[in-house]
User: Fold these one by one.
Assistant:
Number 1:
Amino acid sequence: ASKYRSFPPVGLKDRTWPDQVVSKPPVWCSVDLRDGNQALIEPMDVARKMKMFETLVAIGFKEIEVGFPSASQIEFDFLRMLIEENRIPDDVTIQVLTQAREPLIRRTFEALQGVPRAIVHLYNATAPVMRRVVLGMDEDQIVALAETNARMFKDLAAEQPATQWTFQYSPEMYSNTELDFSKRVIDAVTAVWQPTPERKCIINLPTTVECSTPNIFADMVEWTIRHVERRDSIVISVHPHNDRGTGTATAELSLMAGADRLEGCLFGNGERTGNLDLVNVALNLYTQGVSPGLDFSQIDEIRRTVEHCNQLPVHPRHPYVGELVYTSFSGSHQDAIKKAFAARREDDIWDMPYLPIDPKDLGRSYEAVIRVNSQSGKGGISYLLESEYGLELPRRLQIEFSQVVQQHMDATGKEFSAKDIYELFEREYRVD
Ligand code: KIV
Ligand code: ZN
């Protein structure tokens, strides 16, 4: 049983909105090693890629996009290393991306020689601006391009029958594409692949660039789910980016709209403002009593590894993981947290003011929950003296001493550690 309250909260329980909750986790696919990597100032070398891959496996990802092997020698070599050194666990399927161009597709299948299982991910742009300005193709030509390359996938896969293949197609810029046209392209691709309910293909719907509110995108996903042919043989995947800062909302609403699978990166790395932050969605589910099937119980260690691999810092206010997200400086918050900790019993449902999740569930401690600066009050000061030095002050002394601390902090403008507070207390009240 989860210690977190499921949604909707008490009081709304009689109203059931089955399509307005996410009650089971999606299939997760990490694209850190591909979309995340292609956005880095210094793309990962093979050693950093391997470290990231092992971290993703340890977290519990069962589908991992490991690169774009026809795009660079490092990507190709990394894939060969995974295969030749048997680094892919039996319950993990790797995924690779290729553009819809014959030489790239041939090189991709060459890089995959000998892999036990793989998802091969084909994409081409479908949006009007890409058709008109970048590709110089009309609608019929785009459909023919997707069909021809889907057929090539099928033929090349048939040459390696020992591998268990899954095909994936992305209409790049789906979010900017006319719905009936994206349906036409998707139907053309699935007509070639002929998936079945037992051997599904994946149709991945990207917000290559976020350009609408999340509900509009989720409505598009729902429309596509209702209208595509062979729905029962397709895994519907969603690949949000975060240009409007709404990647997480887009993902959650898309799941409510019926999507089965999410692609994204740890802590939202990725092109421009990033890909969907998978940690955010997973822990949002967790705090509503739904087990995400991903293990973030040592989140700081994961953050440090990701920072090393990406050579990019995670912001101190990043949801769930930032250095400051379990810390309260304000006096009234500190007071409420202190009282709630004192009243809490072991098996109580988690209902703590200002703490949406128990930091201990992520391997964080309570130590950083209360920190003292000029915004703080007596609650925080006495909490630190008590928890760090076992010093319980009577209420009147708490009030008096907090004014002393306040004067010092107003003068310096700096944070006061538990040690600073204790030393000040000793100076002020010590009787020799
Ligand atoms: O954002 C995007 O459209 C992509 C595709 C290649 C899936 O990353
Ligand atoms: Zn992307």
Number 2:
Amino acid sequence: QLEAVIFDLDGVITDTAELHYQAWQALADELGIPFSRAKNERLKGVSRKESLDIVLEDSPLPWTDAERLALAEKKNASYRQQLEQLSPADVLPGILELLDSLAQRGIACGLASASLNAPLILQRLGIASRFQAIADPAALQKGKPDAEIFLTAAELLGVPPRNCIGIEDAAAGIAAIKAAGMQAVGVGSPEQLGAADLLLTSTTELTVEKLLALFGDSGQ
Ligand code: BG6
Ligand code: MG
């Protein structure tokens, strides 16, 4: 039985996946490193530090840890500047309605985002109070595709993983949800998210009925 829905943030609740991409592209351009949307797919769901390591794979230079730290901070500063524009209008279509329907049915909501900026983003979107549990990525041993972040959110909610659904826009995220023993809902393309139990092309299609149907429950 469905007891909790655990959301990814960037690219599911709001389109910050695009802002992340723009900030990485700007950094890569500045450093003269080739970067593309195709490569950016590998950064989705991945921590800031690991994302930078992937961006720097195409650089011939041997970046030191201190230099890498400075570059990650630089990317984050330009990303956070973009976040200042964020408002409740930036919650993706269908998400507020879904949060409402889940609350009405007493289904808990959790957050499993790799972003250290997640609390700020939820606040700017005006939906922080909708989540009963937020897994802190800074406290984890392993990032997505490891199951840890989804398992942590479920534990904070006090719900067994088999009674949870995870919603993701990244391949690493779908892998993490499946490894956690949860039902995975992907929002995106079959090329990236083929492993999802339910694949939707946009958040407008996310309804509580579709989520309940994954548990063989029509909701009637
Ligand atoms: C994830 C994004 O949610 O958060 C990644 O999908 C990002 O692209 C990661 O790198 C870390 O985000 P932040 O805000 O801590 O740099
Ligand atoms: Mg995401």
